[in-house]
Amino acid sequence: MKDPTQPRPVSESVRTRRTDAVISRVSSLELFLDLVFVFTVTQLTGLIVGAEGWTDYLKAALVFMTIWWIYSGYVWLTSNVGLGRTRHRLLMFTGMTGFLVMALSIPQVFGSGGVPYGLGLLTVTLVHAGLFTHAQTGSARAIVGIAPFNLLSAGLVLLAGFVAPPWDWPLWVGAVAVSVSSSFLGRERGFTLSPAHFVERHGLVVLIALGESIVAIGTGARGLAVNATLVATAALALALAAALWWTYFGGDDERAERRLTGLPDGERARMALVAFGYGHFLMLSGIIVLAAGIKGVVAHPLGHATRHGAGELAGGLALYLLGDVVFRRTLRLGPGRLRLLAGGAALLTVPVALVWGRLPQLALCVALTVGLLVVEGRAVEKG
């Protein structure tokens, strides 16, 4: 019979302990950091707009994965470490500078921008690890298990900047693989997080990404006359962005916070990694690709679309809905079958754009997302 006075093994303790909230509200300094992320999303959208083949989309995905992995790491960081001290603020500004250098380097990241991008990523990673050691929770110890993976990943990206194409490809793939492998080892289970802060912080990032789709309307309309066609196209693009906002902020964000609040630390950290790490990576990637598609449809609403343009609008919507299903199913927020079906139906709009043009495709995408919300809303009322 187990002696109740003996301490539990670490694995059991991590699995059953639930820590009170450390940081309950998002700080203004975190919002300031998000301003850099706004620029980063714009740079990534430009990378998508300039894509000429599947390899260019894969490159963009690799770049975004290295950005999102460490950026989301800062969400975990600020859920554990307060930013009221001058030393902490100065370190955050240093990390912000690293993120800015990364964003500036994105257009030439597989060329002359590779080394600056790698140096920026290495700086951001070192600041992240250093700040985490100031946490007043078990996360200060847990970062020791994850920091070597992050540093190795950043080192591989930096090394890729010195290697001529196509030999830089294996280094980029290796960098992403190293980061992802740490999650397979369960290294995140030693971290604590504040559900209220964590969910709010990710919601703000989703808003930033959705804001890029609004910016895409403006950049696509640059130089065009404000006529009935432009107004109709812009209104439909805004409606699509609004529908995506509704899928997330129509209650899922609040339910996610309640779900995380009731979980012990180990399980909370695991579900947060999958739902907000991988699920949001797919969602944000979808919004960025969708923004590139919106820019194209606003600029050229009539006439036959290119395969890339038609694919970006449909593929972005499908990718977002796939990530949303991962997010919802992981946290058990509700069924995702209808959203998967809507994502599949979005892909079927590509032939419409190729034959009749981008504007009818955009209208169909809006009808799909609005119809999804209506059907789900009625199901909730009946349930």
UniProtKB/TrEMBL annotation:
Transmembrane parts of this sequence: 31-51, 57-78, 90-110, 116-135, 142-163, 169-186, 198-218, 224-250, 271-293, 313-331, 338-355
Keyword flag Transmembrane: yes
Keyword line: Membrane, Transmembrane, Transmembrane helix
Pfam families: LtrA
Descriptive protein name: Low temperature requirement protein LtrA
Biological source species: Deinococcus hopiensis KR-140
